[in-house]
Amino acid sequence: KVLRTLRNHWKKTTFGVCLLSWGGNWLYGKHCDNLLRRAACQEAQAFGNQLIPSSMPLKKATVFLNPAACKGKARNLFEKNAAPILHLSGLDVTVVKTDYEGQAKKLLELMETTDLIIIAGGDGTVQEVITGLLRRADEAVFSKIPIGFIPLGKTCTLSHTLYPESTNQVQHITNATLAILKGETVPLDVLQIKGEKEQPVFAVTGLRWGSYRDAGVKVSKYWYLGPLKTKAAHFFSTFKEWPQKHQAALMYLGPTERPPEEPEEKPSRPPLYVRLYRRLWLYWSSPPKEVPQEVTPEDWEELKLSTIELSIATRNRQLDLTRTEDFMDICIEADTVSKGQFVNRGSQKMRDPHMCPEGSQCIQASRCILQLPEGTEGSFGIDNEEYEAMPVEVKLLPRKLRFFCDPRMREQMLHAAVQ
Predict the structure, then answer these.
(1) Which burial class, exposed, middle or buried, applies to 33 when counting CB atoms under 10 A from its CB (0-12, 13-18, 19+)?
(2) Whole-structure pTM over 0.70, yes or no?
């Protein structure tokens, strides 16, 4: 009788089976996420149960949370997945929630001393925090504070370098939070981008200027086309003046040698009698004659360029901890691109914005000056944040900041460098 009823109402039966299957899969996913959270909290509690001397204060961690990241879901993601781990670890956690764009830069100027800085958001939040940090008058001291990154935004470029790939968002967030507690860090390069009048802006990924970036910004307008929205945005942008060329002048300096790392442990202070002897000897000895040092002129290279897109990127995506030179990658793409190539390559650049396709001119530089013709319109993309296009000077600050990373990723970097 039941089978006969199901056969007579096969449409309702099919709909009910699909609904039950989807509901069961959803509940199973929620259960797996709760298991991941529980395991991460148990691991964090092991850090919190460690004994510390009574004279040692708790470590202070300042979290800069952007609630608007990930279409407004960042606050809920942080409170459910990352906040319990941080509180169980024994850290003195202070959460600072930003209310508007640019607020993090102002808050960093007023921030007091802290032991850890944690950025919870996406690329835009990272760019704001490091810009506010490096604009401080005492940036030499604050830049030594280790920084943690909890990927909560729509675009989280740094997470590919710092943490293993994961298709599960909960696992990705909990792994990133646990990596902060484990304490392994890697040095990352920073780009200082300065206009003629504006304060400098700092970036850990790079700068983009060109047609692919302009088309990528408009992809969200074609949301109704589903998976075809990326190709549609690039296709409709070809209806403008074609070929799309960007004229500029570029001056740059070559790579610089990497100095040896300074030892973390300070040398022990010599005894008192040794210090007194040195001071007396310096006082009574004749002052040394100053030998004038010859200043070698900087060897600037100059280049006139016509390109469809220019990108200046750090080496943080392909981090090499043992390289002997410091440089940034400048990619000048040829402007002789067909419309079909433009559409296909635009889709690839949405996945890897700083890819340098075949036929492009690649330059390694430690510093460059980009001069734009008067009346140039458009925008720069600096760490996926939009800025008005203007003449800028880009300077590489090698190994400026230290970010927490997963110990497995650090081992992979060292292993790849040995091979």
Answers:
(1) middle
(2) yes
